[in-house]
Write a sequence for this structure.
C-alpha cells in the first residue's frame, strides 16, 4: 500500500511505525571533497534531504531517485545499499508522529535547471560538515558527518520519470 499523509495518521493512531525514504544526493567538488545537496522544506524553509512516502510497486531505491528529481532537480545513480536511517517527528494534521526514514546515496550525474518543485524549494551544495550543522534532525546530522560513499560503482536505476 502506498502511504499518504492520511494513511500515515491512521497508522500512527494504531501505534504502527511510519516509514519514509530519502536520498542524499552527492558529488565530489573541485578539490575532491565530498559535497551533498540539501533542499529547503516547503513549509518551514529549513534545510532537509529529499524524502517521501513509499510508493506501491517501487523499491526504496527507486523512490529515493524519484524524490531527488522532484524535490532537488537532480538525476543520478542510487547506490544499492542504504547509507543508514534516522527518525524524526513530523506534524501530520493535528498531531506529531514518529517517522523512520531509510536513506540512500545518489551519485549525481545531472543537475536540472527546471524541475517539479523548483518554485517551492531552494537547493544548496555543501560539505558534509556544513550540511550537518544546518540539519535539525540529530540522527541525520550524525549520518551526514560520518558519510563515506562506497568505493563500489553505483548501480544504475531507470529514470525516475519513467
Amino acid at each position: 500500500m502506498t502511504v499518504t499523509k492520511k494513511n500515515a495518521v491512521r497508522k500512527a493512531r494504531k501505534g504502527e511505525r511510519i516509514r519514509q525514504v530519502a536520498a542524499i544526493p552527492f558529488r565530489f567538488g573541485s578539490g575532491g571533497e565530498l559535497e551533498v545537496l540539501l533542499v529547503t522544506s516547503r513549509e518551514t524553509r529549513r534545510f532537509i534531504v529529499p524524502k517521501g512516502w513509499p510508493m506501491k510497486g517501487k523499491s526504496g531505491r527507486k523512490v529515493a531517485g524519484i524524490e531527488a528529481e522532484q524535490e532537488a532537480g537532480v538525476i543520478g545513480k542510487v547506490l544499492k545499499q542504504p547509507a543508514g536511517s534516522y527518525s524524526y517527528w513530523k506534524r501530520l494534521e493535528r498531531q506529531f508522529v514518529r517517522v523512520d526514514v531509510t536513506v540512500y546515496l545518489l551519485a549525481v550525474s545531472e543537475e536540472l535547471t527546471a524541475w517539479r518543485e523548483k518554485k517551492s524549494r531552494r537547493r544548496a551544495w555543501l560539505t558534509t560538515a556544513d550540511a550537518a550543522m544546518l540539519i535539525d534532525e540529530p540522527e541525520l546530522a550524525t549520518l551526514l558527518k560520518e558519510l563515506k560513499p562506497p568505493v563500489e560503482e553505483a548501480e544504475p536505476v531507470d529514470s525516475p520519470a519513467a
User: Anything to note?
Assistant: Helices lie at 5-13, 60-72, 128-134, 138-145.
